[in-house]
Structures are given as structure tokens and as C-alpha cells.
Specification:
About 45% of the residues lie in helices and about 10% in strands. It is α/β, with parallel strands linked by helices and about 450 residues long. It has an eight-stranded mixed beta sheet, with helices on both faces.
């Protein structure tokens, strides 16, 4: 167990000493977000003042060395409280703007936020992205109220998103997490979370901070650690998640490797917990659900299918090592289909992901090669989803994602039957340091 304090800069140490203690901490990791972070700070400040004005609160900006004015904007942005009609405006929102140390990435920023939360002995924490344009003051109530008033330990976000936004979540992270751990957390890598001070301490004690988790795998790691530690988990409806959406075919290979790599590493650490899980259950959802306008996401189905076919031609030897003969045979049959008929069925996709997880577990390929080889397959599945959901609203397309999740659950037996029951400690997320806790399905 890692109990040593994380080093902070001298200036940050002094600021923490001035604040001394707090009830609530809101963390904002940042890197060159001058265009959006002022709005985020105003929303956070207004939300804390409106909904938690009787609590001592601190805002922590953990910055990755921005070369624009991001830290200065956080430090000096004014929060307009006049429209809130708050009678008690005596409490000040304390701000700590600090660089973080360690591997560059969001995870290292979170580690600094967790350490400051530990030192200030806070009861409730939230973290929000620095580039989200749709944040409102109500997000603070939705992320913190279940922690402070309802006895929950972890609050995952629940967004309304365009049907083609978040395709890694829709096709891999959500179905796989749900099938493995038995809890229907719709946005396990959403980026905006609430959690207790005790859970922040739990995160700090894990030996992950020199791994890829410290770069970009932090969101799925936090959600999975919360579930598998037995934390009481809920979700809050935050409305729209408006950021800078991308074409699912454009530059997502890196993100795919990071997310799937973290998912597979977590499977290694928590196998004793997920192997017995046979079904999933709903997770409580706070907040009033309503329809919101979402920004369009442009997709290029032809390009995605072309990249799939290129992978089928060039990566066949690698796919042959990581996939079953049956899966490879089904993929080969897609070679001559016209574009309008191209589909990777849900059953085949679940088998592909489970085969890849098994190949990762058996170390049949270097991890980076295996994860890179998934990219054309993911693009092929995304193209299938786009073709199946044409003409559907985002809400209607959700039924397709629900069907995919049920397929992952139904075919989980395929994974369990092939997963060695003796657990090794080959993972990179700290299982060698402590026996993994069992999930509570």
C-alpha cells in the first residue's frame, strides 16, 4: 500500500497550508485550454455557491505546463453570483493552481488532485474536463449531491450525445465493462465524476502512476476501481456533453489503444471479481432527463470500410494469432461485400473483443501490436453501426447499443471458458501489491 505523500511544489504546499481543510474539492486538469476553461471555472464557482454555499470548497487546477494563459485564467476568472439570489455570499471559493509531476497526462493531473484532497481531508470531490462547453452550475449539484446527501461513493456521468460521438464507449468500453462487472454504467470513460474523499485515498494507494493509466487510461480505471472495490455507484444525468467531436475514422487509433489497453489490464487485475458475474443490473440515475440538442458528427463510412479491408489484407497474419479461426473466417467473408451490405454482426464483434482480451492475457503478441491491430476492426464495427443507425435518432440508436451489450453478456461464457482460472500478476495496474477485491454484482 502506497502511503507516502505525493510531492507538491513549494507554492502549492503553502496554498494547501493556508486552506488547511475543506468539505468539497473540485478538480480541473488542463493543458492549453484558455479558450474554454474560464467558462468551466465560472460554472463550477456558481454551482458551488448556489448548491453548497454552507460548505468550505476549494477548486484545484492541475495544469500540464500550458503555454497559453490557462493557469492565469483559472486564478483570475470572476464568478458572477448576482443572478443566483444567494443570501449567504460570505464563503470564498479557494483556488489552488498547480503544475503536476510525473508522466505527462490526465492521470498524473488527477493524482495531484487526489493528493490535495487527501491533505485537506475533503468529504466529497468532483473532477470535470477543462474543455467541456456544455457545463452548467447544476453539474456541481448532480456530481456532489449523491455523495454528500445520498451516501454514494462514486458518481458517473450520464450524457446525451450524438449517436456517432463516443463510439469507443458505445462499441467497447460500455459493453465490455457491463458484461465483466455486472453494473450498467453507461459512460465509464465520461471524464466528469464525483467521488468521496475516501475513494480518492484508495486511488492514491494504487501503484499505477508510472503506467499508461497516468497518461490517458484514468477514466476507465477510476470507474472500474470504484465498482470492484465495492463502492456504492450511481449516475447523474448531465444533459449534453459538448466538446470537439471527431470523425470516428480520424486519429482515434491512439485513443483506442489507450482505452482498450487499460480495459485489458484491468481484466488481469480483477479476474477473480468478474469471472463469476453472469448478468448486469441497473445503476441508479439522478437528475431530470430531457432531450437536448447535440452537435452533429460527420462520418465517412467508405473510408472506414476501406481501412478495414486494408487491415484484412495487411494484418491477416497478426489477426490469425489473436483471433479464433471462426472469427477470422467470418471476417474474410466480408471481403467481397458491396459497401451497402457491409456489416460486422454484434455476435462476431463480441467474439473479436473477447478473443483479443484472451490474446492479451496469454501474451501471444506484443501489447502494442495487438492493440494497433484492433483499429481496422473497430473502424469496421463503427461503419456497421453507422449503416444500421441511418435514419434513427440518437435515442433510437441507443436500442442498438443495448442489443450489443446483451450480446456481450450472452457470449461472456465464451470468454470465461477460455480464461485460465489461476490468476497471474502480469498486469500493470498494481495487482501484485494487493489482492484484488471482489466485485459486488
Amino acid at each position: 500500500m502506497n502511503t507516502n505523500p505525493i510531492p507538491l511544489t513549494h507554492e502549492t504546499e503553502e496554498l494547501v497550508g493556508v486552506v488547511r481543510s475543506a468539505d468539497i474539492l473540485v478538480g480541473i486538469p488542463s493543458f492549453n485550454n484558455a479558450g474554454t476553461i474560464g467558462h468551466v471555472v465560472r460554472a463550477v464557482g456558481a454551482g458551488l455557491a448556489k448548491y453548497f454555499h454552507g460548505h468550505r470548497a476549494v477548486l484545484v487546477n492541475a495544469d500540464g505546463g500550458s503555454t497559453d494563459d490557462t493557469p492565469a485564467i483559472v486564478a483570475h476568472t470572476m464568478v458572477d453570483l448576482e443572478p443566483l439570489f444567494i443570501s449567504d455570499r460570505q464563503s470564498t471559493l479557494h483556488r489552488i493552481v498547480t503544475p503536476y509531476h510525473g508522466i505527462p497526462g490526465k492521470g498524473s493531473a488527477f493524482r495531484t488532485i487526489f493528493e490535495i484532497a487527501r491533505r485537506l481531508k475533503v468529504k466529497a470531490c468532483a473532477v470535470v474536463d477543462s474543455d467541456v462547453r456544455s457545463i452548467t452550475p447544476e453539474w456541481m449539484e448532480l456530481l456532489l449531491h449523491p455523495i454528500i446527501k445520498e451516501g454514494y461513493d462514486y458518481v458517473a456521468p450520464y450524457y446525451r450525445r450524438h449517436k456517432y460521438d463516443g463510439t469507443i464507449t458505445n462499441s467497447i468500453a460500455y459493453p465490455l465493462t457491463r458484461a465483466l462487472y455486472g453494473q450498467e454504467v453507461r459512460q465509464p470513460i465520461g471524464g466528469d465524476f464525483g467521488f468521496t474523499g475516501e475513494l480518492a485515498q484508495h486511488y492514491l494507494e494504487k501503484h499505477v502512476w508510472e503506467s499508461d493509466v497516468a497518461r490517458f487510461g484514468i477514466d476507465i480505471w477510476m470507474t472500474t476501481e470504484a465498482i470492484t472495490s465495492g463502492a456504492k455507484v450511481c449516475q447523474s444525468f448531465l444533459g449534453a456533453k459538448i466538446h470537439d467531436p471527431k470523425d470516428p475514422a480520424a486519429d482515434l487509433s491512439s485513443m483506442l489503444r489507450q482505452v482498450v489497453g487499460a480495459l485489458f489490464a484491468l481484466m488481469e487485475a480483477h479476474a477473480p471479481g468478474w469471472l463469476p458475474v453472469t448478468d448486469s443490473r441497473k445503476v441508479p440515475l439522478f437528475g431530470f432527463q430531457y432531450e437536448v440538442g447535440v452537435e452533429p458528427v460527420n462520418v465517412n463510412v467508405e473510408r472506414m470500410v476501406d481501412l478495414f479491408h486494408l487491415g484484412l489484407a495487411d494484418l491477416h497474419p497478426i489477426w490469425a494469432r489473436m483471433l479464433s479461426e471462426d472469427a477470422l473466417d467470418q471476417l474474410s467473408r466480408l471481403r467481397d461485400l458491396p459497401l451497402r451490405d457491409f456489416r460486422i454482426p454484434d455476435s462476431l464483434w463480441a467474439q473479436i473483443i473477447y478473443d483479443a482480451a484472451l490474446a492479451h492475457h496469454r501474451n501471444v503478441l506484443p501489447q502494442e501490436h495487438l492493440l494497433k491491430a484492433l483499429t481496422p476492426l473497430y473502424l469496421g464495427k463503427t461503419a456497421s453501426f453507422v449503416q444500421d443507425s441511418q435514419g434513427l435518432t440518437s435515442a433510437e440508436a441507443e436500442h442498438l447499443i443495448e442489443g450489443l451489450c446483451r450480446t456481450f453478456e450472452k457470449q461472456k461464457e465464451y470468454l470465461v471458458a477460455r480464461w485460465p482460472q489461476s490468476h497471474d500478476a502480469r498486469d500493470v495496474i498494481g495487482a501484485a501489491d494487493a489482492r484484488p477485491e471482489r466485485s459486488q454484482p
